[in-house]
Amino acid sequence: MSFTVTPTGAALGAFVSDIRLSEIGAAEGRGLIEALGEHGVLFFRGQELSPAEHIAFARSLGEIDTNAFFAPNEDFPEIAEVRTRPENAYVIGEAWHTDHSYETAPALGSILVARRLPSRGGDTAFSSMYAAYEALSDGMKATLGGLRAVHSSYEAFGVGLSKLPESERNERFKDSYPFGPDVVHPVVISHPVSGRAALYVNRSFTTRFDEWTVHESRPLLEFLFEHGASVEFTYRFRWAPGSVAIWDNRCTWHKALNDYRGESRLMHRITLKGCALAA
Ligand code: SIN
Questions:
Q1: pTM for this predicted structure
Q2: Is the dihedral of CA 234, 164, 81, 198 positive or negative?
Q3: Which segment of 14-23, 56-65, 150-159 scores lowest on mean pLDDT?
Q4: CA 81 to ligand 1 center in whole angstroms
Q5: What are the pLDDT digits (tens) for 69-116?
Q6: Given the CA of residue 123, which atom of ligand 1 is nearest to it?
Q7: Which of 40, 106, 116 is nearest to 271 (CA)?
Q8: What spacing in Å lies between the alpha carbon of 256 and ligand 1's midpoint?
Q9: Which of 220, 272, 277, 279 is nearest to 99 (CA)?
Q10: Rounded CA gap, 187 and 69, in Å?
Q11: Does residue 260 sit in helix, strand or coil?
């Protein structure tokens, strides 16, 4: 394996250099998945990936998990378009979240390629759920270790969407909303690659603890949502033309910054299939 991995020095993230993503083989693909399990998010600069190369690169890392809610690219339906138009007040993914936690086998990760960037802002922030878990007291770790939580796509794409103006909704999502049944995951998972413990709840999709009411769950969930967003666990990535980021959904949260009102931004996202998660 020939690439170089340089950690950001923050709680998560590493820059990967000496690699051309359009040309990687199986050994490099496995190496990137390992590095992802360790660092949570990998950043690449100066990559000129066409949409077809983006898809081929994704396939070298795993199977593609097409997002059911985002508008697909017209020519490449495996690619979800994360688009902001100048008139949009909201941006996709502006609350801290991890992709597809509402699935029984949540997505391994996502590969985001910058296509059109605003002249200012539009960064993506990431937070380490390894670091968030490790910073908790032993008492809280013991409590969370016995809990499972419910994750729902309806919460974000049904209830959440209904709060947006209709013009914003139609911009973003397809006409039908394929809500699956709610799913349950452990609140603390053992990462499938690294084996490390990670906090696995998120503000966008986690609605309550299993066998608890929403009302009972809210204070502890609110604490975890605030705790996970502590700046100590985060890293903020500044996009440039040719930038690519891959994040591991099992040990990170991410959030798109909504700070470029009046400008456009277009990102291409491919999500990779994952597996069922265990404590
Ligand atoms: C996402 O949540 O997948 C989008 C992140 C971004 O646009 O920066």
A1: 0.92
A2: positive
A3: 150-159
A4: 10
A5: 777 888 999 999 999 999 998 898 999 999 989 999 999 999 999 999
A6: 8
A7: 106
A8: 5
A9: 272
A10: 25
A11: coil
